[in-house]
Specification:
- The protein is 30% helix and 31% strand.
- It is of the alpha+beta class.
- The strands form 3 sheets. The chain has a 5-stranded antiparallel β-sheet with strand order 3-7-6-5-9.
- The chain is globular, with a radius of gyration of 17 Å.
- The termini are far apart.
Length: 231
């Protein structure tokens, strides 16, 4: 389910985006078990479009500072080498074949070359129904990238039901909730962490990854890189 359900009043203004994420989280009564998800089973894998931040020291350091303070049994921290922004799910690996994936990579790579790299501010911390996560800003270049990858996916697969840009709410999760937890008990702790300054990162590529679940964590391997070169 899309969260937040409503859009912010300004998708370019970082302060508006941050305030909107925070207010939306404050309106949630209880967080749910993120891992209680239909379709997933141990060993099943899926193809996803992502931005990966595993090699970005600024994003990793900010995540680590927050995770250190969020050492709680009801949250599973995202490994620092698996920090990511999910753009969308393509398909489960057992529902497609390699030749189709190859065509997808070729199509998406060609279209992504038309997009330029862009800067992204990551932070501060907020949350959703199932995760504690960073706000990211601005949204326009992310929405353009999402539309490009969704169109490429639809061109190859004939559908892209899981990649509706109207439902895209970009964020970077740093800890997943593993049980029902009262948000009111979390708000003071998250509020303290919101004083940490956002960090800047440069997005130069998107990745097609093969995602898997290992217990209560996500792991993935990059299959192809879609460079943004602006031509």
């Amino acid at each position: 389910m899309t969260f937040p359900p409503g859009l912010p009043t300004d998708i370019e203004d970082a302060e508006v985006l941050r305030a909107h994420d925070w207010q939306s989280f404050r309106e949630v009564d209880f967080m749910q078990n993120h891992w209680d998800r239909p379709g997933w089973s141990e060993g099943r894998r899926s193809y996803h479009w992502m931005l990966s931040f595993h090699d970005d020291p600024a994003v990793r350091d900010l995540a680590l500072q927050c995770q250190t303070e969020l050492d709680r049994p009801d949250f599973d921290p995202v490994p620092l080498d698996a920090l990511h922004l999910t753009i969308g799910r393509v398909a489960f690996t057992d529902e497609t074949v390699q030749t189709t994936v190859d065509r997808l990579v070729e199509t998406a790579s060609r279209e992504c070359k038309k997009l330029a790299p862009f800067h992204l501010a990551v932070g501060p911390l907020a949350g959703s129904r199932g995760a504690l996560r960073f706000t990211v800003a601005p949204w326009p270049p992310l929405l353009e990238l999402h539309r490009t990858l969704a169109d490429a996916t639809q061109d190859v697969f004939g559908e892209a039901d899981g990649m509706q840009t109207a439902n895209f709410r970009p964020h970077v999760s740093i800890a997943y909730c593993n049980r029902i937890s009262a948000v009111s008990e979390l708000l003071p702790l998250v509020a303290q962490l919101r004083v940490l300054d956002p960090v800047s990162t440069l997005v130069v590529a998107a990745s097609l990854v093969e995602l898997r679940r290992e217990g209560r964590t996500y792991r993935y391997g990059e299959l192809a890189r879609m460079d943004l070169v602006g031509r």
